[in-house]
Amino acid sequence: MRLRLPGRPARRDDAAAPAPSSSGATPAPSTGVVDAPVTDGVTGVATQAPAPVEGRGVRLQAASRTLATVAAQFLLVAAAVVVLGYVLGKLWVILLPIVLGLLIATVLWPPTRFLRRHRWPPAAAAALVLVAFLAALSGIVAAIAPSVADQVTELADQATAGLQDVQEWLQGPPFNFGEDQIGDAVDSTINSIQGNAQDIAGYAVTGVSAVGNGLINLVLALVLCFFFLKDGTRWVPWLAAQTGPRAARHVTALSQKTWSTLSEFIRQQAFVGFIDAFFIGIGLWILDVPLVIPLAVLTFFGAFIPIIGAFVAGAFAVLIALVDQGFTTALIVLIIVLVVQQLEGNVLQPIIQGRGFNLHAAVVILAVTAGGSLAGIIGAFLGVPVAALIAVVYRYCRDELDGRHPEVQDDGTRATITGDESGAVVTEEPAQPGPSGPATS
Question: Rounded to the nearest 5 degrees, what angle is found at the Cα of 235, between the Cα atoms of 231 and 236?
């Protein structure tokens, strides 16, 4: 009996009428589809691959066009990101004072707003708050400097004594290094330092230049901060007025959300830093570890670089305790630092963080690492705020695509731009239900 493949015309002997069954009923006519596996005409071995069906080529071409379109879009987006990063890198000298000024302005805006609500002129309110801020920083530095100058000399003497103890320990069992071997190692280290004296001098000059640039950026940031506090309320109406009527509400809402997110981040990290500095400082004071106030201040500022900053500040505290008090005290300090950081991460952070602001710890570490590799300490400091702002913009776009009306605030109002040729202002109006349903935040 011969097998006939699908779509192959029937031969004359295949077209014979079917024989009736034993029951007398005529069997159903053949459909031309064979259930047996397809066989090779030469060897007669059955294959496991299904026979091709009609339309496979058309669907393959459609899938290829879709893949090519997606690949082209991805390449365009990647190219745009690269170009944007290149432009921002070239403009970083200008952008850095602006960013630092905005961060300082988020801290100083609440007292400035308080004074302006009590009928202070904008310039006077901004100047008073900025001068008070600078006076507070100067007072902290003046209070810390004498104790640091006094205790650093003691720590240097204790470090020298510690090195002598290490040398005596190496000369005893189990190492049993001779004095000549240790002296040779010290001499080789000194010779290596002297051989690289030019490189070390170059690094020192680079460090001095970086400090000078940092001071210039700080002065520019303070000047810009004054103007942000004085005229910052005009920025959102001006920016929204440059767009169309439909885009103005999104520009206004995104500006408000990014500003509130940045302010919330600074306040939260300042509060977390104060708690860490307070409890770790209390522990260092009880253990009579030197440089308590400088270490507490370092812990406070280290909180603005999440995870990495706390680790570095804690390592400094443990190192100073090891040099001054010994291994046991250093171990106790390490336990105190770990306990405080665990309480902060597992208890304090979930309580004070607002809804929708949480960033996963892995995202925080990646943001700090990427920022540090791109722009050093400043990049590590700015990495998490930038990641938080990117998350805000992403969530806003996602909610807008889903028809959730993210421009509506929690109180049921929506910011809108009103005005005429003479100027524009931001006003609040009740949100109306959108075409996809009631407006929700």
Answer: 140
